[in-house]
Design a protein that fits this description.
By secondary structure, the protein is α/β, with parallel strands linked by helices. It is built from seven helices and twelve strands. It has a six-stranded mixed beta sheet, sandwiched between helices. Strands 5, 6, 7, 8, 9 and 10 form a six-stranded mixed beta sheet that branches.
Length: 243
């Protein structure tokens, strides 16, 4: 029996809007249904830090959460960098992604330093985009979900977007999210991993591979994939997208 997989969930009370903090639970459920023991550790302050983790999950928050969350995350910088050096996966949504990047320019023009884990920067001074979207990810897989975001993200040179949006509007670029090594981020809302379980497969597969293990797909995982495909199909139908 291998030791439990440890998933660290960052600041879930500050950065957990619209169910986005549930990414840790979705990853944990996927591993448990493969027969592995999982422990989800909520990290609110340095005293909560554990030495080793397999994955770090952080959700999104409101504009008012940026300052307080940034302050708390600065106290966790050494732990975050240590986990990154250990090869831990990071999954981040919305504001959590922004704060784990280089910096965030707030809607009022203030520059808030990030912790520098993600090779990206965010600017919240442009308008809000809200709506359902669909597209193809970096492995040409169907993706869909709901985005409710302010501003935009800029990726460092050479960094790949997680996916490309069909029929992007002027308020949102075609490129969305980030994938770089063991880093994955998106602005899709809380159900991002539920609607796109292939991203869960990427993260979980990487966590298992780091221990010399392979995924053991069960009926549970197949049902999840089928339900997600149906939900994405409903979104693409409403958007008038066909493949």
């Amino acid at each position: 029996m291998t030791s439990p997989f440890i998933i660290a969930r960052l600041l879930p009370t500050m950065l957990g809007s619209n169910g986005s903090a549930a990414g840790a639970e979705i990853l944990g459920a996927t591993l448990r249904h493969m027969g592995h023991e999982v422990s989800i550790v909520d990290i609110h302050r340095p005293a909560d830090v554990v030495r080793t983790v397999d994955c770090v999950s952080v959700g999104s928050g409101s504009g008012s959460s940026i300052g307080p969350a940034a302050t708390e995350l600065m106290g966790l910088v050494s732990a975050l960098r240590s986990w990154q050096d250990q090869g831990a996966w990071f999954f981040a949504v919305g504001t959590g992604w922004d704060l784990l990047g280089h910096h965030v320019v707030t809607a009022t023009g203030d520059l808030t330093p990030g912790v520098g884990v993600f090779p990206s920067s965010a600017d919240h001074r442009s308008g809000r985009f809200s709506g359902e979207v669909s597209g193809l990810d970096y492995k040409s897989r169907d993706c869909a979900g709901y985005i409710n975001q302010v501003g935009s993200s800029t990726l460092d040179e050479g960094v790949q977007a997680l996916w490309s949006i069909d029929k992007a509007s002027r308020e949102h670029s075609v490129a969305e999210g980030l994938i770089s090594g063991t880093l994955m981020a998106t602005r899709l809302g809380g159900p991002a991993l539920s609607l796109n379980p292939h991203w869960v497969d990427d993260i979980v597969g990487g966590m298992l591979a780091a221990r010399g293990l392979v995924p053991a797909v069960t009926d549970f995982h197949e049902r999840v994939a089928d339900l997600a495909a149906r939900a994405r199909g409903a979104i693409t139908a409403r958007l008038g997208v066909s493949r």
